[in-house]
Design brief:
CATH topology of the largest domain: FAD/NAD(P)-binding domain
Strand content: 15-25%
CATH class of the largest domain: Alpha Beta
Radius of gyration: 24 Å
Largest sheet: 8 strands, mixed
Shape: globular
Number of helices: 14
Mean pLDDT: 95
Distance between the termini: 44 Å
Low-confidence stretches: none
């Protein structure tokens, strides 16, 4: 029979009962319960708009051979002698490497940080000693920034590449199969490291090279052609260079600017991490507390307009933790993470306001947005003791009212927090937009400004404050042949999946150029 797709609703009590799902799908389709008819869930999401949340399933119905999916697999070719340098071992870099190997091209990956498991030691030092390793931290190191930030796999950039292929390759390296059907899949910061390690093994076993603890210092140019990089004092040449260094590699932006390789200032967003007890978020967004045992910790994505700019949530971590994401001494940056189970007591999210180029003193300076970001981070660090990663904090109700909190509720942020006028420490424009936006959001979501809710600052690494311009057809830099700006750092992605897809696109473009 020809495959059909049907949408059904399932209450949480039945979601783990395949028989009930099959029965409901066949009933909705009007087909008999015939053993020669197969069903398969294609998509799973939660509709929490009504008083009783329920699952919404997209189900395929048809013959067994037509219902079973075709899976993408990694199929490398023998190496041809050609090679491409990839700066950065995050999702853009690793998926670019796998794609090059499928075209018989050797990837040479240069990563400033350490392996994904060795990074843990440096993360521990941030908590215990307040020490920031500028090359190995929550943002830098194998796996990139997303590895220790929940491993969210949701993307709206579905037209930029093959999302299914990315998910299949993650599953082939140990990710759970559910990421193929969940509307908002995630892996958890305790699961992603072993997946990243297995991808590394694939790259190495097929002839690729990976150089850890090696920082790219400058670029080798011959006229308007990219010929390689200088890394750790050594010149490394190749047929092309893919730059996949992430949105926090400020030294790369300075190096490009110093070599007169065109870069541009880009709008971004800046604000706070907002944290609530998870049961309160369950009550607000599921309309129940405690939530049903078959419902995951409630999450949210909210937005509004205030003072002519967007105010929105970012990187929401249900059942998660606020973490120190600074990449250099003397700055304070916050982010969020969750483990796979998402069962910690608190929920946190970035709550940020747009930073427009007209907010900046010198919008023609390609580094002006980066400098605005850096100034806010240094100000937050110096507001405290100037020695640790303790974060300034304020109850949400006090932040809105513009007054210092007498005390701060318990937080998941391990380095600790202290009461401070966050509304004054943030840049004025973003602070005012956030306070106004929170008033609106708190009216819509009753309890969002609860006395138990607090904000900690600063959340500033939402996206790259720099864009590296590239040709829309060839994906090469506008000025430099053989140079492929890629992923979040170049301004062309926003998360693991979109970065991975961009890595694949740039690798394909490099392969076309080389051949």
């Amino acid at each position: 029979m020809k495959q059909i797709e049907i949408q059904i609703k399932i209450n949480p009590g039945q979601i783990e009962n395949p028989g009930a799902i099959r029965k409901e799908a066949l009933k909705a389709s009007g087909l008999p319960d015939d053993e020669n008819i197969s069903t398969r869930v294609l998509r799973r999401s939660i509709d929490a708009r009504s008083r009783k949340p329920h699952y919404v399933l997209q189900v395929a119905i048809g013959d067994p051979e037509t219902v079973e999916p075709q899976k993408s697999i990694f199929t490398p070719l023998p190496l041809s002698g050609r090679q491409v340098i990839i700066a950065g071992a995050g999702p853009a870099g690793y998926f670019a490497a796998l794609t090059l190997l499928e075209h018989g091209i050797k990837p040479i990956i240069i990563e400033r940080g350490r392996t994904v498991n060795e990074r843990r030691k440096d993360l521990k030092k941030i908590y215990t000693e307040g020490l920031i390793n500028p090359d190995s931290n929550y943002c830098f190191g194998e796996g990139g920034a997303g590895t220790y930030s929940d491993g969210k796999l949701y993307t709206r950039a579905t037209k930029r590449g093959n999302v299914g292929r990315i998910l299949d390759l993650l599953i082939a390296n140990g990710a759970p199969g559910d990421i193929r059907i969940d509307a908002h899949p995630h892996l958890g910061s305790n699961v992603l490291p072993r997946i990243v390690s297995r991808m590394r093994d694939d790259i190495l076993s097929c002839g690729g090279e990976i150089h850890f603890n090696t920082r790219v210092d400058s670029f080798i140019l011959e006229g308007n052609c990219m010929k390689g990089v200088v890394a750790a004092g050594n010149a490394i040449k190749a047929d092309a260079v893919i730059l996949a260094t992430g949105h926090s590699a400020r030294d790369i932006f300075y190096a490009l600017n110093n070599q007169e390789i065109k870069i541009e200032a880009k709008p971004f967003a800046l604000g706070v991490r907002i944290e609530h007890p998870q049961p309160l978020i369950d009550k607000i967004f599921y309309h129940q507390s405690p939530r049903h045992e078959n419902l995951p910790a409630a999450s949210y994505r909210i937005s509004t307009q205030a003072m002519g700019r967007g105010v929105f949530s970012f990187c929401m971590c249900p059942g998660g933790y606020i973490v120190p994401a600074s990449t250099a001494p003397g700055e304070l940056v916050l982010n969020g993470m969750s483990l796979a189970a998402r069962n910690a007591p608190f929920a946190n999210a970035g709550l940020v306001a747009e930073v427009k180029l007209e907010d900046l003193t010198d919008p023609e300076n390609p580094l002006c947005a980066l400098e605005y970001q850096a100034t806010a981070e240094k100000k937050m660090f110096n507001a405290g003791d100037g020695k640790t990663q303790q974060a300034p904090a304020q109850r949400v109700c006090d932040f809105i009212a513009g007054k210092i909190s007498k005390s701060i509720p318990k937080t998941s942020y391990i380095p600790g927090s202290y009461s401070a006028p966050v509304h004054e420490l943030l840049p004025f424009i973003q602070s005012e937009a956030l306070r106004s936006g929170l008033k609106t959001l708190s009216k819509k979501f009753k309890g969002f400004d609860s006395n138990e809710a607090k904000v900690l600052a600063v959340e500033s690494r939402t996206s790259s404050p720099v864009r590296i311009p590239r040709n829309r057809e060839t994906l090469e830099h506008e000025q430099i042949k053989g140079f492929f700006p890629c992923g979040e750092g170049a301004g062309y992605a926003g998360g693991i999946i979109s970065a991975a897809m961009d890595g694949e696109k740039c690798a394909l473009a490099a392969a076309r150029m080389i051949k």
